[in-house]
Design goal:
With about 220 residues, the chain is mostly beta strands. The protein has one helix and twelve strands. The chain has a single domain, classed as Lipopolysaccharide (LPS) transport protein A like domain (lipopolysaccharide transport protein A fold, Sandwich). Strand 10 and strand 11 form a beta hairpin.
Length: about 220
């Protein structure tokens, strides 16, 4: 695990953004939307933080498969620079808890994730859990060979690396090509490619399927 300075990267409460540099392991950090200038030495911590966020973002890409037909993320997205913005970041290497609050935005290629609050649990340099909260938290990405993006949203999004599951909780909704899949809880088993919805008592699954043009 890469060790970083003990003090978390702070730049007031204004947003910042970073993109990969020209050499391996380097990052170019710059103020976003009039943000202040980072302190000297701050990019080293951002390197650690963003490399871990990169793993989480790749995990969240599988949200494009929530509808029960195989949907692969746009293959070129992983080769694009990742941009991350938040009003505040609180990093604790001792506990492994990373917290990002206020207008959290993660983008990479066609992928975009937004939340009011993002928490990551890090163990041995790897993300074991991630929780995004929002009103709602949102996700979108353009799948390969598709003309439209996949959209997902819920008040709470959870990722568990141990059993490879992504869970959308409270007002969960996934939309692709006009088809809408809704439930209070949607669980996607990444390893088995299985979707489970409507586990709560009285919870109902609602699906809207748009008619297809017969000439398509």
């Amino acid at each position: 695990m890469i060790r970083s300075p003990t003090s978390p990267p702070t730049c007031g409460s204004r947003p910042w953004a970073c993109v990969p540099g020209s050499t391996p392991g380097s990052w170019n950090c710059f103020p976003a939307s009039g943000a202040c200038t980072p302190r000297p030495g701050q990019p080293d911590r951002m390197t650690t933080m963003l490399s871990r966020l990169y793993r989480l973002t790749l995990s969240l890409l599988v949200l494009g498969c929530v509808i029960n037909t195989p949907v692969q993320a746009l293959s070129s997205d992983r080769d694009q620079p990742m941009h991350i913005e938040a009003d505040h970041a609180d990093i604790n290497d001792q506990t492994g808890v990373h917290v990002y609050t206020g207008n959290v935005v993660v983008t990479q290629g066609s992928m975009r994730l937004t939340a009011d609050h993002l928490t990551l649990q890090i163990e041995a340099g790897e993300i074991v859990e991630g929780v995004a909260l929002g009103e709602p938290a949102t996700y979108k990405q353009r799948p390969d060979n598709k003309d439209e993006d996949v959209y997902a949203e819920s008040l709470r999004m959870e990722y568990y690396a141990g059993n490879e599951r992504i869970i959308l909780i409270d007002e969960a909704e996934v939309t692709q090509a006009g088809d809408i899949f809704r439930s209070e809880r949607i669980v996607y088993d990444v390893a088995r490619d299985v979707v489970n919805a409507g586990e709560g008592e009285g919870d109902r699954v609602r699906i809207t399927i748009q008619p297809r043009n017969s000439q398509e």
